[in-house]
Amino acid sequence: MSRRSVLSLVLVLFWLAATSLTAHAFPQAAWPTQSKGSRGADVEAIQQLLVHAGQSVAVDGDFGSGTDAAVRAFQTARGLGADGRVGPNTWAALAITVRQGDNNHAVRALQRQLNVKRGLGLSVDGSFGPATHTAVVDFQRHAGIEANGEVGPITWRNLIWHFQLVDRPDVAAVCTKASDVNGDSAHWGTAAAVGQLTVAAERVSSSGYGPVAVRDLSFEHGGNIPDHSSHEVGLDADIQLMRNDRAQCTGISRISRFDAQYSRTATRQLVQAIRATGRVKVIFFNDPVLIGEGLVQSHDNHDDHLHVRYCESVHTNSNYSC
User: Fold this and answer.
1) Is the pLDDT of residue 8 over 80?
2) What are phi and psi of 240, to 5 degrees?
């Protein structure tokens, strides 16, 4: 190879390395549309960012009437379509660039996101200090984007899109069960799906039926998942049937609707709680009684678990649009 060829190759490799710094490691990363009825950590981020923008809104992770009004006011002030939906344009206007030395509600949103999506224990105090800077750099490396510690549009989009684990130490109403094929690696879902499911689980658990045991959702970054034809976008959740002995988390991993320990009463309560929280596209489960009550739909191979498909008001895949 000639010196000119070697030099050309070096320049090409240098260009590829340089451009990869701004490429998305997660090509599917996109702003998740949130709107009235949504719940979870991404709604908390919206609320913190609204507060930073001068709107008065409670930061509680529940996209209710107050958040809807604040979003519409923000959209009007910024010349956006005031439809109450936080889609790509509204997200981009809300997610201001933050960096070390800043102290504001946008940093609070960032810290909470890093804690939930990356399992960290940052203080959610709004102060962008060394610990937050290190966490940002680590996430940027994880995402394959420029690791400069500054949180701009690319970092925000990849972080907001990133899935979160469904089970956390501070949520006693939810536990996870390893699947036969995917083990413990498929317990990740969108913040919205996890938020909706957690609220339903807390309602059922507080009624005395015990915790809710979750099997597969998705992998950390989505994509094809063995033994499933779906579960690729963080919005499908397989859930154990509720039991008479309340041992969903500690009992035998798989019982079916034919088993003596199957509690139709508790499972009905769970399905009703899931539907009541909203953002549910369909629930598959082959219990003819619950099917007759209009709570679930029949689907092959769904005798031993609920398959809950959550949805967003706008999604690139029509199967997940509400």
Assistant:
1) no
2) -60, 150
